[in-house]
Specification:
The protein has about 350 residues and is an alpha/beta fold. It folds into 3 domains: about 45 residues, lambda repressor-like DNA-binding domains (434 Repressor (Amino-terminal Domain), Orthogonal Bundle); about 130 residues, Response regulator (Rossmann fold, 3-Layer(aba) Sandwich), CATH 3.40.50.2300; about 140 residues, Rossmann fold. Helices cover about 40% and strands about 15% of the residues. A 6-stranded parallel sheet has the order 2-1-3-4-5-11, sandwiched between helices. Strand 3, helix 7 and strand 4 form a beta-alpha-beta unit. Helix 1 packs across helix 2 and helix 8 packs parallel to helix 9. The protein is elongated, with a radius of gyration of 25 Å. About 40% of the residues are buried. The C terminus is likely disordered. This is LacI family DNA-binding transcriptional regulator.
């Protein structure tokens, strides 16, 4: 049986106080390099290991992180969570995942529950309903580690990881224009989300570049992001009932994009012959759809990894962190048959 050593044993052997030994083992900047070296070498020699249960009780640390997302079944979020877990478990942290289902009330309840379970930090992607960020601001002001990813809080000064939403939307819209479509409708998530605003701006910029006026009737917000099929069906029907109905759809939500193809087929429309589709989705089977979908793909796994590294570094920082960064990754446009009508001439401006 291995002999179990404590901080008191190390302190006694080295003639130091227990608080000095504790701070040295934790890498505190208050302890000199020579003392740290002495303590760490002795701890290694006797194979000292801290008691994780005692550590948790003493520090109120759980070595777990809370994750707040809209929906795990969403292709983007499932891939981001895989990225989160790949880093967290290697760094000794458990991951507790909660879903908001685009509800602000559920989001706040989830956050309260995670805090009550003494998670050491939060990784958050905001719900479509969320406009009041006071609960996050309160936690952040108290020094609680929070990192936002994808759907970020613009006014809270902490680490954030997102993609170049403007460019992704611009490229997808321009692809539709270049393949001959000019009446391009835009289906998007709740206007509350910063990503919706950035993607709308990219869509508008592509239209402007090619001399196509923005038509407000072509802009549709689905506040539940495709989770409620009836909402999407109603939205598409409204577009199809317009006197000057669109010949293409640019969609900026993962679930919305994949659901739209199903709904258009249900309504008896052919893609792209009757209406073309390009959209944001991380679906691994987008190329197996009929027709294969042109998509803007986000590096979700990498986003999850980066956000988790940022959060754990915040949690483990020995000093208060006052400088924060926003990491912006690039999207990838993959063009397939859903935007290319056979025989359609490229007559874009």
């Amino acid at each position: 049986m291995f002999e179990s050593y404590t901080i008191k044993d190390i302190a006694k052997a080295l003639g130091l106080s227990t608080s000095t030994v504790s701070r040295a083992l934790n890498g505190s900047y208050e302890i000199g390099a020579e003392t740290k070296k002495l303590v760490l070498e002795y701890a290694e020699k006797i194979n000292y290991r801290p008691n994780p249960i005692a550590l948790s009780l003493k520090e109120q640390k759980s070595h777990s992180i809370g994750v707040v997302v809209a929906e795990v079944a969403n292709n983007y979020f499932s891939q981001a969570i895989n990225g989160i877990e790949s880093i967290a478990y290697n760094r000794g942290y458990h991951v507790i995942i909660t879903q908001t289902h685009e509800s602000y009330a559920r989001e706040t309840a989830n956050v309260q529950h995670l805090i009550s379970r003494h998670v050491d930090g939060l990784l958050v992607s905001l719900s479509a309903e969320t406009t009041d960020l006071s609960h996050y601001q309160y936690l952040h002001d108290k020094g609680f580690p929070i990192v936002f990813f994808d759907r970020v809080a613009p006014n809270i000064e902490t680490h954030k990881v997102t993609v170049n939403n403007f460019q992704g939307a611009f490229e997808a819209t321009e692809e539709l224009i270049r393949t001959g479509y000019k009446k391009i409708a835009h289906l998007t998530n709740s206007y509350n989300l910063l990503i919706s605003k950035e993607r709308l701006n990219g869509y508008k910029a592509a239209l402007e570049k090619h001399g196509i006026p923005f038509n407000p009737e072509y802009l549709k917000h689905c506040n539940h992001g495709g989770m409620i099929q009836h909402e999407v069906e109603t939205t598409i029907q409204e577009l199809l009932n317009l006197d000057d109905k669109p010949d293409a759809l640019f969609i900026t939500s993962d679930r919305l994009t994949t659901n739209c193809l199903y709904i258009l087929k249900k309504l008896g429309l052919r893609v792209p012959e009757d209406i073309a589709i390009a959209g944001f989705t991380n679906s691994d089977v987008a190329e197996l759809f009929d027709p294969p979908l042109s998509v803007v793909r986000q590096p979700a796994f990498q986003i999850g990894q980066i956000a988790t590294e940022m959060l754990i570094n915040l949690i483990e920082s020995k000093r208060p962190v006052t400088e924060f960064v926003t990491e912006t990754l690039e999207t990838q446009l993959i063009t397939r048959a859903s935007t290319h009508k056979s025989g359609k001439k490229n007559n874009a401006g």
